[in-house]
Fold these 2 entries.
Entry 1:
Amino acid sequence: MCQVGEDYAEPASEEPPPRQPGREQKCVKCKEGLPVVVIRAGDAFCRDCFKAFYIHKFRAVLGKNRLIFPGEKVLLAWSGGPSSSSMVWQVLEGLSRESAKRLRFVPGIVCIDEGAACGLSPEARAKTLAEMKLILQTVGFPWHVVALEEVFDLPPSVLRCFAQEPVETEGAYKAAVDSFLQQQHVLGAEGAGDSPSLAQGEEQLSWPCTQDPQNPQSPDRPPTAAQTEALSRLFDSVKTLTAKEELLQALRTHLILHVARTHGYSKVMTGDSCTRLAIKLMTSLALGRGAFLAWDTGFSDERHGDVVVVRPMREHTLKEVAFYNHLFAVPSVFTPALDTKAPEKASIHRLMEAFMLRLQDQFPSTVSTVYRTSEKLVKAPRHGCAASPPGPRCLLCMCALDIDTAGAALLSQGGPPSLRHRAAVLRLPREHEGLALRGPPATLHLGRGPAPQPELLPQGLHRAADPGVPG
Amino acid sequence: MVPLFFQVLKPRLWTCPESSISLIHRPLPAKRAPPPPPALGPRAVCGACFCAAFEAEVLHTVVAGRLLPPGAVVAVGASGGKDSTVLAHVLQVLAPRLGISLRLVAVDEGIGGYRDAALAAVRRQAARWELPLTVVAYADLFGGWTMDAVARSTAGSGRSRACCTFCGVLRRRALEEGARLVGATHIVTGHNADDMAETVLMNFLRGDAARLARGGGLGSPGEGGALPRCRPLQLASQKEVVLYAHFRRLDYFSEECVYAPEAFRGHARHLLKLLEAARPSAVLDLVHSAERLALAPAARPPAPGACALLDGLNRGRPRLAIGKGRRGLDEAGPPRDGEPERAPAPEAVPAF
């Protein structure tokens, strides 16, 4: 594949075709064990080394970014699928380790029941819910199961972007960790059995092991038939599968954030894997979301202000997740989604997924290349700072609008092309009426959207008297 | 989806909404399919109005973006294909209004069995439009390196020949030289919206951060002394270009390059066609995305120029300049930074 950056310096050092793990091959890490899985293009790992590699990656991603402070409440978004199940399992294991390397945040789990949007019958939904509750009880974190119908009860405040706290500096993170460690040490010495309080001092948190996992935090009332009906109507009114998926994602995000806010969680972890994020990046490109790629696919997503969405699984490929879940018996629940069994050309998402996976077969470095490029994206034009720009934000995705009315690029005039009515293309601002071309003169109007600002036109074409709103 | 351009029913009187010209529509014979509808939105117009609308759109693009100021001498990159033919024709129509003068510059890459026929088409066009034509050849500019010679030199190592990488960079340099020869102040090329969409898809799939950072706008102002370049057809979809050429009965060369089947762009093109079928606005949405990509400054190494490529070719190690950085050019040792995907060295997991 003509991939940029492939090392062509020495033709002789071309890598040999990937060897199948034969009987003689050993694990590339420990050189002793028998390999059970091949990662990337030919690295065979034995079971223990694979487990260590997988866990290390998870911890390294969290540790490298240093966004999760000790003692912080973190909400894990669990869909039942393999990636999020793996993430929950990693957190569970991480919390139970020996104290030096133990994960130090306070987790909760949220699960959104999207059956109504996918057209499932109430019996199927109840069955899935029962399976999920079984797993949730095994895990033992405080959990919240929320039906998507509750999105109708969301207050309008979810559409407002809350002011962000100033970005913590490196020093603040280290200080927080040190003080937490000291405090634990002191508590350990005093033999306190009660829930520890933080040096930050804001909240009294209860450690999960003391909480009764039988008692969910949210009242467990099933959605009413009227709400389910309303949700089905909403989704039926959307014509294309692409738009339905986007709507579902927007609603799901708002609901999860609302749950996080009401229960005091400051971070949300989602289980998007490397493969899924690469597909999501390409899909967002095709949908016109090039300006927001860094938020959609980066490690942290702070556009909602007070709650930060974090993606700790972003370096694990789907293959690694699947093998880990299989080898180490991570429980997961299959829930049909909007595009289950949909034909390949049904939506942009399905098309892109099929294309990327096919290309990945042919060129095994496709997903990692796209991922590496996504790491180079920045949250332009302004970084997440305390005084967020006062520009208007999209209601659904909360990103600053990427339409600029006085921009140099032509497409910016009149808004994103997908919303621009091409019929408006046939309307000419008054400035250009005199330049009407061959063909019928007065009746033909051409141009696009709102009239370009007068200062953008060369002097000779400017009609000073009339700013030229297309008639 | 866009409405059908022709109603394939019994003959009826139909009035073009723009020109009020009444036309009698006859149903087309069952065997011949109607031409693809233009992506002009929910209005159906007759051929003449469509062409006028197309020309007006190009005019608007040029004027609102201030791409070609009056008095510019514009070198049109003419390959003989549909895009550059349409571009040259439209610019010729608009030239009096814009106050520009045109010169045709054709590039001979030395691809046997392809470029010769294309150049014949360009010569016919130049004669018909009475525009001065200059042909620049790789063989003259780059010390005897034709594309066929490059392909031979890069073949045989088991990897792809990367012909398009070489050809693209060298062609831009050749266009620049040709434009200077004719005393031009601006260069225009016929890239349409589909081309730009394919480019952004392809660059993401290849991980080419350098080109991603550069591309996207309507053209470049010309870094480092190069002539400013622009693409007036950038907002026109490929369907519109084809239809315009059809209605104006333009003569162009429509075979694909000999090296095209092995190009990576083919994957991007296939994907784009699928996306367009699922959602017609995908093409322009991709162009919109491309304009607004934000890449970290450190991730934007300059893409290798023609000199670096030629240097590699002349040294007998053609892939030097398209590898990671230009280490090989300095004859440095084995690569210092390995694959980022290798198993990380065991390090103390930071406390968090």
Entry 2:
Amino acid sequence: MAEAEEKPLASPQSEGRGEGGEEAPEGAAEGGGAAGAVDPAPPPAGSPGTEEPAGDAKKKIDVLLKAVGDTPIMKTKKWAVERTRTIQGLVDFIKKFLKLMASEQLFIYVNQSFAPSPDQEVGTLYECFGSDGKLVLHYCKTQAWG
Amino acid sequence: EDCFLEEKRFKQYCEEFIKHSQQIGDGWEWRTSKDLGDGYLSKTHFQVRNRNIPRDLKEKNNDNIERTLFTDVEEPLDDSQTAGVCATEEVIRYEYHVLYSNSYQVPVLYFRACFLDGRPLTLEEIWKSVHACYQARLLEGPWDTITQQEHPLLGQPFFVLHPCRTNEFMSSVLSSSRKHSRYTNYIILWLSTVGPVVGLNLPLSYA
């Protein structure tokens, strides 16, 4: 799996437009995959506003997404994600970004050895497993049963 | 690249798993079958479930699942209209077993569930209770996913999560982690992946 050049941590990317993209992108100079990606899917109904109030403590954490096996590699790997985003939310986001069908299965792993449950918040994962200011998550598209 | 699990390794991983479970009081134990000397992991837990959880939990992906469970239901069930349902919140007793399958050479998750009055859940009810995350895949092929089978050691009917693809997905993740010389407990990796489908979540400390 070829690794694309990683974007510097100093300018984290905002989440792709598929996720309630009302907010101003951070580090706006980064054209990158997020702004350029074709993402026709509308934001999920009822998804919370993602605006970050000025001056508040950091509500987002940096996540680095790495593909496992034959799973398609995301053009943009580094994302600033709200702490309260669940694994399920992240799975939905990656599936939309990669244009996978709802019925395809995508799993996320931490430390390449453990799949956090779908309702686990990424903020908690960052506290437990983050290092160098980011949380590395591996994702794998696979059939798990059937 | 296949990562088949030998039975001996299965037992070793289970031993590690039990050790951690004991440390954190997670309730898993190792049971052996009287006749055959085969062993398996076992855990029982109770879960409260609100029958009116909306199918599409994606819309609430920022809500803690517990909050959803205790939210007032929008359409209160009426006893006279819904046969067999008395409450909008129910306690269900789940029993999970992890057995080793010689034919597939992988662990297999067996489980059964019943209400407090002893009434077992039907296969339909089990399918309905699969986490929203996996409902789309389930609907494509419910019979491929969870079916009812006789427990190989106890001879009683249990539900089972189909193991035929286990090796496939385990291989993807394991070969990646092994490439980085990372020690991975097969059982923890596997159970953390498939468990949530049927309401079994492993605390983060297993990682």
